[in-house]
Amino acid sequence: MLTSLQNPLVKQIRKLQSTKERHKQQLFLLEGTHLLAEACAVNYPLEVVCCTQEWQANHSQLWELACSLCDRSEVVSPEVLSAIATTVQPDGVIATAKRQQQQNLVPYTGIVLALETIQDPGNLGTMIRTAAAAGASGLWLSQDSVDLDNPKVLRASAGQWFRLATAVSADLKTTVQNCQQAGMQVIATLPTAKLTYWEVDWRKPSLILLGNEGAGLSPDLVAMADQQVNIPLSPGVESLNVAIAAALMLYEAQRQNRD
Description:
Layout: H1 8-15, H2 19-25, E1 27-31, H3 33-41, E2 46-51, H4 53-58, H5 60-69, E3 70-75, H6 78-84, E4 93-98, E5 111-115, H7 121-133, E6 138-142, H8 151-156, E7 166-169, H9 172-181, E8 185-189, E9 195-196, E10 206-210, H10 219-224, E11 227-230, H11 242-258
Parallel strand pairs: 2-3, 5-6, 5-10, 6-7, 8-10, 8-11, 9-11
Antiparallel strand pairs: 1-4, 2-4
């Protein structure tokens, strides 16, 4: 059992709490039983799995499965687990995994989200979770957004991070052009748009553009859209949370495609 905070492995994992170190080590953190179970369900390759004795005794099957997918497994003291976790009350298990070297293939079919300069990890994780729940095909994220594998993003996705095709776009304008050339209609949300979001024909392959929480979409991306839509708001309400806006359009698309 690892009990020392000075252990080299413990020190290495603790460093992964910072974005800079995750990039340097090319690793990210998986925290908690649910995320580990979701990773194991899709056979996601793991580097290291650490758990407490109590967690190991209560989750013997998951522990065996995780050990079969990882390069190293260690039982650690509760103090060590608390030190390597980013959560206030970790539930007993933490794993590390390699950052995506090859991006999941986001298809040019169905409904896809394209997100520009999203900064809040909770918003991104919620949109990943909602996109998976609504049956979207995938999600593009601009390079200047919060990291796709930020620990808070993974937690907010409730494990759906492992089930939705996602990719970081080095140039979102080029990605949008590629989607249009592949036959997708590009829909931008804009408060001044004349068309409401339910008037769009979502039965066509569609790319939904959503922008930064404060600034919205950049003018360049807005100009590329085939259609601009608004979400009606009551007087005095300026805007909706970006994740709520995404959910409304994703479920309208799902409704139309089921009819």
